[in-house]
Amino acid sequence: MEHPGRTAPRSPHRPRLRLRRPPPQPRTGSLRTDLVRLLGAFADALDRPHGRALRPLLAQRARHPELYAEVYRRVVLPHKEILLGVLGAAVERGEAGPGALGVRTAATAPRLVIAAHMEHGTVPRDEVEALVDEVLMPLFTAGGGGNVPGPEERSTMGA
């Protein structure tokens, strides 16, 4: 007889959760529209199984660092990479200040969406728009040099 605390081994025929690919980089020519689309897609990703797993893992990060890192890598990092592309294009157009590419500045957007998701359980589009209009647009369009990341810092910022 098997110990009652043990779980059965995973069946090789059991279906695995599949992640949706992150959306392509929005290229509307408008920083605000690109941010609303990207962060809306990120909020939707947080409502899916892998995204929902992020919430308890944030509280248990020290106990399960490898699991947290894997979920973070799959859910958050793809959106951060796209965000850096959106911000880079906005800086090139002169729509955003160079400080928008700073490590901490750019990490603000996903952190705000994660915080709103933890507080409310979901992040509706009107909340995403409010975050973009009231916090992120003033932040990203402000001048200043910022703390511009090197290539090795881009994929790990905020981790």
Walkthrough of the structure:
This protein is mainly alpha-helical and 159 residues long. It has helices at 31-46, 49-59, 65-75, 77-93, 103-120, 125-141, 151-154. The chain is built from seven helices and no strands. It is globular and about 45 Å long. The protein starts with 30 loop residues before the first helix and ends in a 5-residue tail after the last helix. The relative contact order is 0.16. The model is unreliable at 1-8, 13-17 and 144-159 (pLDDT under 50).
Secondary structure layout:
Layout: H1 31-46, H2 49-59, H3 65-75, H4 77-93, H5 103-120, H6 125-141, H7 151-154
Helix pairs in contact: 1-4, 1-5, 1-6, 2-3, 5-6
How are helices and strands ordered from N to C? HHHHHHH
Mean pLDDT: 80
**Helical content, roughly?**
55-70%
* Cα-based radius of gyration, to the nearest Å: 18 Å
- Share of residues in strands: under 5%
Overall 3D geometry?
globular
Termini, distance in Å? 43 Å
The biggest beta sheet reads: none
- DSSP strand count: 0
Low-confidence stretches: 1-8, 13-17, 144-159
Judged by helices, strands and strand pairing, the structural class is mainly alpha
DSSP helical segment count: 7
Considering the chains and any ligands shown, give keywords for the structure.
single chain; 59% helix; 159 residues; mainly alpha; disordered N terminus; 7 helices
